[in-house]
Design goal:
about 375 residues, alpha/beta, Enolase-like, domain 1, TIM Barrel, 2 domains, 7-stranded parallel β-sheet, 4-stranded antiparallel β-sheet, 12 helices, 15 strands, globular, binds magnesium ion
């Protein structure tokens, strides 16, 4: 593979149902799509799923665009390699900016697997034909609204429901959902909203009695010790998300006992290769993993389906159909879940045709190495 051309597109899609987490509410999602073209004219697509605002992590669409156009594009343009790792090596010395790197990593893997005539899942070492999908429900205006949303998703066949929680919206809504659905595979995600104090400890002690599959990221990203203490005090598994950005974070989690489950987000960890390495480390440590989402459009969603086909993904992943969130997909066929199962495509690459014309037509900002001057100064080698 030799990368001859790179195009970037900023595309916004409205959410069908606005989504609220412990930090903010959103009605639309803006992601950057990456198209790589090799010397043979084969293309590969990736998605930079950085949120618009720096509330999940430090990265945003704006920072990802800057890093992409100033560093990643110039480093990758003209680069050559046999394996994805050969091309990913060009951004090894760039610290952080995992979401931006993940979009490029996805495009490299899609291109590589299309070139080899392999499904992305097979190229990554996946072993499943279908992936169990769970859904994530935001903070709703009332408990009745939440119960109605749970009904809709259960009726759609999703076997696992995750509830976003925050101080003031935790024990009561969880108990209401549990009372209505005694056998539901239910878990909660705080996105790090709780301080490490006695009030929080009391909340988690009460949630511990609700038969939750896991409590995800109760404390801030850097609170590994607080997570370890909580895990030693409750029977419910603690799952880490925001705390594990690099493989070193995962090793620390394991050594400290800071959780018994890992949410692998391809975007948060900097791409498919790192996500696969995290999977391998977790499997060795006996830690089950699942794939979290960032409201990906079809390109990123298909990559999440592919990584979720690896054997250590033992828990339902956030890979629900695009139709749960968006009116239309940017890939054909759209990513769909049937009775809570998503079929892992067997066609080459991500296994879906990318709707390039729609992306070209609807993007608010584009970048094309064939048309634009590529920033040179920031690339300085050495
Ligand atoms: Mg999470």
């Amino acid at each position: 593979m030799r990368i001859e051309r790179i195009r970037l597109f900023v595309l916004r899609q409205d959410l069908r149902h606005s989504f609220e987490t412990s930090s903010h509410r959103k009605s639309g999602i803006e992601h950057i799509l990456v198209e790589l073209t090799d010397a043979e004219g084969q293309t590969g697509w990736g998605e930079v799923a950085a949120p618009s605002d720096p509330y999940f992590g430090a990265e945003t669409t704006v920072t990802a665009w800057e890093i992409a156009t100033r560093y990643l594009v110039p480093a990758l343009l003209g680069a050559e390699g046999e394996e994805p790792a050969d091309l990913e090596a060009v951004w090894e010395r760039i610290r952080g900016h995992e979401f931006a790197k993940a979009g490029f990593s996805g495009a490299v893997w899609d291109l590589y697997s299309r070139t080899r005539g392999l499904a992305l899942a097979a190229a990554l070492g996946g072993t499943r034909d279908e992936v169990v999908a769970g859904v994530s429900l935001g903070i709703e205006p009332s408990i009745d609204d939440l119960l109605a949303q749970v009904e809709v998703q259960r009726a759609a066949g999703y076997p696992r429901v995750k509830l976003k929680i925050a101080p003031g919206w935790d024990v009561e809504p969880v108990r209401a959902v549990r009372a209505a659905h005694p056998d539901l595979d239910l878990h909660v995600d705080a996105n790090g909203a709780y301080p490490d104090d006695a009030d929080s400890a009391a909340v988690f002690a009460r949630l511990d009695g609700e038969g939750l599959t896991m409590i995800e990221q109760p404390f801030g990203p850097r609170e590994l010790v607080a997570h370890a203490v909580l895990q030693s005090r409750i029977g419910t598994d603690v799952c880490l998300d925001e705390s594990v950005v690099a493989l070193g974070d995962l090793r620390s989690m394991i050594r400290l006992g800071a959780g018994r489950v890992l949410n692998i987000k391809v975007s948060r960890m900097g791409g498919l290769s790192v996500a696969r390495a995290a999977h391998d480390i977790a499997v060795d440590a006996g830690i089950p993993v699942w794939c979290g989402g960032m409201h990906e459009f079809g390109v990123g969603r298909a990559a999440n389906v592919a990584i979720s086909s690896l054997p250590g993904f033992l828990l339902p992943s956030d890979v629900s159909g695009s139709d749960k969130y968006y009116a239309a997909d940017i890939v054909d066929p759209p990513v769909r879940a049937e009775s809570g199962l998503v079929t892992v495509p067997s066609a080459p690459g991500i296994g879906h045709e990318v709707l390039v014309e729609r992306i070209e037509r609807e993007s608010s900002r584009t970048f094309d190495t064939a048309a634009a001057h590529v920033h040179g100064s920031a690339l300085a080698r050495g």
